[in-house]
Each structure stands twice: as structure tokens, then as C-alpha cells.
Amino acid sequence: MRAFRLMAVVCLAAAVMLITAPLRPEENKVKIVFFSPRGPDDIFWEQFASFMKEAIDDLGMEMKVYFANGNHVKMVEQAEHALKEDNPSMLVFQNFKKQGRVILEMAEAARVPSFIVNAGFSERDELGKPREKFKYWIGEMLPDDEEAGFVLADILIRNAPSRPDGSVYMVALTGNIADSASAERQRGLERAVRIHPHVRLQQVFSTDWSSDMARMKFNLLKKSRYPDTSVVWAAGDAVALGVISGAGDLDLKVGTDIITGGVDWSAEGLRSVLAGEMTATMGGHFMEGAWVAVLAYDYFHGKDFAAETVRMRSRMSAVTKVNAESYINALGRENWGKIDFRKFSKALNSAALQYDFSVQSVLNQVK
């Protein structure tokens, strides 16, 4: 009888432990919460989130998206809500209007892993690398925005109509002055201008990534302040598309009277390049959300990506009229289902020695 009682107590204790012990990620779906700084109709962030969802579905995880609609205070409130109500496995967000540190601190207090994408921190922020000051900030993946700004400027300059004296008059329309992506792309632009002494960069204007604001500012500068402008460097596709609309308002021929180009590889931007309106669009970084999903899967399934690096950088590529059609055909949404994101995981592919998060690796699957 005593042995039976002892066995009963042991069984009861084991049952209690099973009920109260937290489920391991492999026993419960990993839930990624992504915070978009813009709205659901934003031409870049909608694409970013949708591509990320494709990867998360392939990997058997869950995803929830919050849209801040350009309001950094709202994003912080959404992060606070998600940590309290959503039981997230990981938060994914950018350093939107310098609020990244606030969200890192909240995630750290809640012991929830966090991952920075698209726009990170400067040296002045003094945050160091992931896993240094913030243990639960496990990684970052950022595009090489400076190089993208440089290459875009170089393409525009080489295709620019010049005045009889050989000079090219340019203005630049950036995104939000508080966004590191905008600042780094501008640094690339300025580097390109320095190596092309015949280019006159007349002024840099901020647009807050808004197509409508870009249209309004272009109309004003072209009509009054800088009528000689023939090149408009734009920090994003939406901004460049605003310039194209503004050119239409003024009866200017895009591609001849005015040339412009942007960054994002948005569907609208790619079509504009194919139509001969935008000269180029830099991109590929919309795929980063999917790559973060792969890293998250591996992290929660015993294959920590830190063995390779906690700071990943992605290179953007240029799409011009020469290659626009092939990119549109290959990367159209109807082909996203052909991509097997499980093939990118080290946890699911023991022979994989290094992550291959390249545009070409995706193109190879959809051909």
C-alpha cells in the first residue's frame, strides 16, 4: 500500500510538471510578430510582409503583423501590447524613427527574442552588436543602403541628359531624415556625386517616403527654384513614382526631360522601369523578412545562426529596362509558391555550411 501511495504521488507530481512547464518551441508553433512601420498598402512593406509570410508558412510557424502607419509612438504601443497579449516567440522590427531601443528594452524585460531588420542603429547609439548589451536581441539583417544609393546615383548620372556645357543638374528626394536607411542611401548618393565633378547636386529634400509629398516638392522645385533639373535621385520607389506623376503635371517627358529612379523593387517600380519611366530601381531587400524567418526557425530548433554571424548584410541589385522583364516574370507573386524556404534552413539541411540568402538562390527555384 505504501509503495502504491508513493507511486501515485510521483505520477501526480509528474502530471503537474507537464501541465505547468512551458512548451518548448518544437512542441508549440513558433510565433513571429512583425511590426511594419507603414500601412498595409505601402508598396514596399506590404511586399516585405507577404514574402515573409510565404517563408513562415513553409516552415510551419505562425505570423502576426502590426501596421504603425507611419506613427512611431503607435509602433511602441503595439509592441507593448504584443508582448502582453500575443505570447510571441520573437519580435521583428526596424529602428523606426529611433524607437528601436525602446522596443529592445521591452523585449529584454519580457525575455522575448528580438530581431532588427531593414534599418538599424548608428555608432552614436552605442548599442554594440546583438547579444552584447541586450541578451535577447539575437540578430540583425540590414541591406547595404549606402551602396544602393551609390549605384542608383551612378546609373542616373550615366543616363542623364546634359546641358551644352556638359553639366548635369540633380536634386535628391530622401525618405525620413530619422531613418538610417534614408541617411545611408544619401551618403551613397553624395559619394557618387564626388566622383562625377560635372554633376551639380542642387539640394536634398525630405519626403517622409510619401509619393504625394514627392510629387508636390518636385512640382515646386522644377517650376520655380531649380528649373534646370534633369535628374531626380529618389530614396524609394514610391518617391520616384511621385516624381513621375509630377512630371506629368508639368507636361514633361520622363526618360527624356527628367530621369529618376528609386529603391525597393516594388511591383509598381518594376513595371515603371519596364515602361521606360523609371531608369532603375535597386532592390532585393524585401526578401529579408523571409530570411529572418529561416534564421528564427533554426534558432528555435537547435541550430543557432550565431555560429555564422549575428549581423547579416544583404546586397541590393539594380533592375533597369535591360533586365526588368526577366525579373518581373521570375519574381511575380504567382511564382512565390514555387520557392521552398525549407531548403535555406541549416536545421533542416545538415549538409548546409553557410546561409545563401541571395537573389540568385531564389531565381534558381522559380525558373
Structural description of this entry:
This protein is α/β, with parallel strands linked by helices. It is 41% helix and 17% strand. The protein has helices spanning 2-20, 45-58, 72-85, 100-110, 145-158, 180-194, 211-225, 237-249, 267-274, 288-300, 324-331, 359-366; strands spanning 31-36, 62-67, 90-93, 114-117, 137-143, 168-174, 199-206, 231-234, 259-263, 278-283, 311-314, 317-319. It has a six-stranded parallel β-sheet, with helices on both faces. Helix 8 (237-249) links the parallel strand 8 and strand 9. Helix 2 (45-58) runs parallel beside helix 10 (288-300). The longest helix is centred in the first third of the chain and has 19 residues, at 2-20. It is globular, with a radius of gyration of 24 Å.
Low-confidence stretches: 1-26
Which structural class do you get from the secondary structure elements? alpha/beta
The helix content is 40-55%
Please list the strands of the largest sheet in the order they lie side by side.
Answer: 2-1-3-4-5-11
Q: How many angstroms does the end-to-end distance come to?
A: 71 Å
Q: Can you write the helix and strand succession as a string?
A: HEHEHEHEEHEHEHEHEHEHEEHH
Number of helices: 12
Number of strands: 12
Offer a few descriptive terms.
367 residues; alpha/beta
Please render the helix and strand layout as text.
Blueprint lengths: L1 H19 L10 E6 L8 H14 L3 E6 L4 H14 L4 E4 L6 H11 L3 E4 L19 E7 L1 H14 L9 E7 L5 H15 L4 E8 L4 H15 L5 E4 L2 H13 L9 E5 L3 H8 L3 E6 L4 H13 L10 E4 L2 E3 L4 H8 L27 H8 L1
Parallel strand pairs: 1-2, 1-3, 3-4, 4-5, 5-11, 6-7, 6-8, 8-9, 9-10
Antiparallel strand pairs: 10-12
Helix pairs in contact: 2-10, 3-4, 5-6, 7-8, 9-11
